[in-house]
């Protein structure tokens, strides 16, 4: 039995688009925030090649995947204690009309290589925009840029932006949301002049749902394993499954450029250790092997919104033990595309390790479900099946009283 290989899944784009039948009276009220998020985590300094241009980016990928070179454990130099506050950019959306679900917040975590726009698709939003879909069902939504991408802080790409610190950012952000002090703790970037409208955003949630894709789903699983019911009332992990074929691919299969060298106008402010996927790899990673399952304009959109990744995240994948979330008892849905290339080497139908996956959520087995999306690759929100996928997610929440 093979465990999920994070290297195969990192960067995996996906979100969950939609067309939902709902009252047209429910629309979005959205506000942009800069949230100071305090973080305490133990990261690791690794013996890995430095990345400062595209040639060294390729050398790094080859070095860390060559079978005879050092493994994860042998590359550890020392622990690095992280204790500081990072500025995390977020978008909070609430229904224009109060609903029974307004006090339930969906907290959205995108995959590696993308920011919150992964959930907020601008192309044909009635089909692909998950935030719009969730709002149309009456939920409140908070989507954020992970550390090192979008409009969030971009610290050292080797020792600062790693799996442990990203798990703790999600944990700390969730606590701020649960406290009802998100607005008061944040700098409000949007120009909101109406006091009545501002009041709508001041939500103290009764429930918080953790929704992720790919690497974002991996972070949520680690969060549930560490903190259990404290930080989630429900979870949907998309682009996530334990597969017998997960180790067939690694980071060397997916081409990266040095971010600042790749596109100086977009990524010139990113320093050493930041890499970015090339367009051909975006197609390989996020879409199925033929163009039948996606529209070309969505691939172009993916190239437009892609974000740098860090070698620190890839290097720290060994910190993930995929321990069972014994302290979490809520509902869990996991989803993957039938033809997911990075997770299943192109065919998930015979590769899904159901018992192992369910074992990651032992207390919630009675409320666990897995859905394999037909005719779809890794990018669930950018596939032609996006609307049906989103509806499946929202139906699952509804069926579980969330």
**According to CATH, what is the topology?**
Rossmann fold
Radius of gyration, Cα only, in angstroms?
20 Å
Order of helices and strands: HEHEEHHEHHEHEHEEHHEHHEHEHHEH
What is the number of beta strands? 12
Please report the first level of CATH classification, the CATH class.
Alpha Beta
How helix-rich are the residues, as a percent range?
25-40%
The unreliable regions are: 1-24
Note the total helix count.
Answer: 16
Largest sheet: 9 strands, mixed
| Portion in strands | 15-25%
As an assembly, this protein is single chain
Total number of distinct structural domains? 1
Provide mean pLDDT, rounded.
87
Main β-sheet, spatial strand arrangement: 5-1-2-4-3-6-7-11-12
Specify the CATH homologous superfamily: Alpha/Beta hydrolase fold, catalytic domain
Distance between the termini: 33 Å
The outline comes out as globular
Main structural class = alpha/beta
Protein name: Alpha/Beta hydrolase protein
Keywords: Hydrolase, Signal
InterPro entries: AB_hydrolase_1, AB_hydrolase_fold
Signal peptide: 1-22
Secondary structure elements and pairings:
Blueprint: H1 6-9, E1 28-46, H2 54-65, E2 76-95, E3 104-109, H3 125-128, H4 130-136, E4 140-144, H5 163-179, H6 182-185, E5 187-188, H7 195-201, E6 207-213, H8 215-227, E7 234-238, E8 256-258, H9 259-262, H10 264-267, E9 274-277, H11 279-286, H12 296-305, E10 309-310, H13 311-315, E11 332-337, H14 341-344, H15 354-359, E12 368-373, H16 386-399
Parallel strand pairs: 3-4, 3-6, 6-7, 7-11, 11-12
Antiparallel strand pairs: 1-2, 1-5, 2-4, 8-9, 9-10
